[in-house]
């Protein structure tokens, strides 16, 4: 009998219980105990769901109140000193590391002011993890036993689980040295961290865990030699230690073949590979197994929402059985289901035809079980027939076969993908047109999305207020944002995006070829979840999407107003993409829809237009090579197709965040001004790299994920530091990202300080 396995389940609750309660805790509205109980309830629900679906191998320790990598940092005492001096509870230390903390002193507690640790993309997904941050003084030791506690919790509920840990090589390699230890290479800490891993593994075994899932996703990256060789050292040490559970080494999000040498003789009991994203690797990876080792076949997509194609999956699993025997094969999700929404059953508004094509986390549980049954010759013929019919209906639907869209993509030529003039000529014309001061100040686009905005949007969605009333409300919000920016003294204004629920969903809802959900939330970071729209068919724009609001905003002010759009690559990356058409084709379809929008904005008098591409970096294939250069080419082409239909003096902006960007990649977009997330970049070499960027650039000056307010002096110091290597006449002054998650009060204070700092430098240049 072939077993079924799940590598991780969404931890946010079917109705975002985790977010609501975590934020209530931060606001002081519920106690720590109440929050802990919410976590416990979510875990119990998840385990029960998996058990009832018939999953054989169910994960534990896949839950986290913020981020599972941060959990491990807390567990292993990888806590920089700046977080320990306030005598916070363990839970509050954890949150302070994740999101920063600024708090006045009370009679019983000290004042706290500490920034968050760096947060970065989890591989090429839209999940972000908190980067482990090591220094020479880091002393690994267990500060608790969360994995054991959660294992025992499941056991008490009658569920035997397989605990999950990020493996030692990936944990170290995904980290970075702290500011005080820049010469430290995290992987050099391997020997030091292993005893702590061994200790927690022994505790898990003692608690009754027979097997642990140990995630080493870095195996899909290009790894330096010293990191590759670390695998053997680490897993030999585990094999030599007494009293450890069996280990399943899991890799996902790609092909591990380039690192096969590093793992081919590891003494683990099983390997898991992703055959959704690395189907080609099958023969070679299956060949490294010794006769004692098991193969976990990752075949149900943990990153997307499409119904599994059973006939294809069964073929792959059967191939594994032929090679290894049924006892040594496990059918699994390709990765954790963290990246998928919780339950399709909660979607009441989806078109029935389309809904039939989807499978969310809960549905994927029965998919792994059904595949495992099918290859074990259990009777599932009805499920297989229904699945085949659904796959066929999608491939033959008119939605996935729009001839007009296909013809327009085929007609894209070089005249459509470059501006009429080179940047210096455009700049000359734009200087005349906009007459901006040195160090022009701007924001990235969104302003605080207040409760009032959400209430009114909800009322409108439910039909409790009319379209006119809603428009009036939105206009009053836009006016407030415009007046606010004039008061603060910003130079290039935005309308604040009160009408937008999300930067991709808002456009997705207006494009043909998109579907969207009511409950399809996925964790992006901490308590921030997104509800990615779904590209279900060929994409086109029936009518203008953003012109009305931008034109209204421009009518309120003589200062330049930025029209705000989300770029084609970001629309693609932050949606669930199709899996039946290439990403390039989907991106070009989107770029044509956006080109129409950019041209409409220009024609309506909005001539500074920002096309955000925050997701361009995350789409970068994880390994260097042909696939990566192809990606960079079509990503840049898509941006240029969207933005090149305008006049020379129309100023195109773009924005990027969450990225370790290579300036060369953004050069190819040829935007007139780019702004990037930068406030947490300490490395002087990284600043230096950007000094050669030819067009104008705003290096983000403050972290918008944190409620803390940087002082004017802090801004001045930061700008001065950057100006040591960066030319003053190309320099824009702006925050890291949009301000929608912030409150008004802190936004006013931060932006005022930022504008004041810009003035200091303007004076100096006179
Ligand atoms: C833009 O600049 C190019 C190159 O100098 C020139 O050929 C073109 O006429 C300009 N377009 C407009 C509308 O001025």
Automatic annotation (TrEMBL):
Pfam families in the record: Meth_synt_1 (PF08267), Meth_synt_2 (PF01717)
Alphabetized UniProt keyword annotations: Amino-acid biosynthesis, Metal-binding, Methionine biosynthesis, Methyltransferase, Transferase, Zinc
UniProt pathway annotation: Amino-acid biosynthesis; L-methionine biosynthesis via de novo pathway; L-methionine from L-homocysteine (MetE route): step 1/1
Keyword Methyltransferase assigned: yes
Domain Cobalamin-independent methionine synthase MetE N-terminal as annotated: residue spans: 4-321
Positions of the Cobalamin-independent methionine synthase MetE C-terminal/archaeal domain: 439-759
Binding positions (L-homocysteine): 444-446, 612
Enzyme active site: 705
GO molecular function: 5-methyltetrahydropteroyltriglutamate-homocysteine S-methyltransferase activity; zinc ion binding
Binding sites annotated in the UniProt record for L-methionine: 444-446, 497, 612
Residues noted as binding 5-methyltetrahydropteroyltri-L-glutamate in the record, renumbered to the chain: 19, 126, 574
Co-factor binding details: Binds 2 Zn(2+) ions per subunit.
Binding locations of Zn(2+): 655, 657, 677, 737
EC number(s) recorded for this UniProt protein: 2.1.1.14
The organism's place on the tree of life at top rank: Eukaryota
EC class of the enzyme, as a word: transferase
Example GO biological process: methionine biosynthetic process
Similarity comment: family membership: Belongs to the vitamin-B12 independent methionine synthase family.
Biological role stated in the UniProt entry: Catalyzes the transfer of a methyl group from 5-methyltetrahydrofolate to homocysteine resulting in methionine formation.
Name of this protein: 5-methyltetrahydropteroyltriglutamate--homocysteine S-methyltransferase
Source species taxonomy: Eukaryota, Fungi, Dikarya, Ascomycota, Saccharomycotina
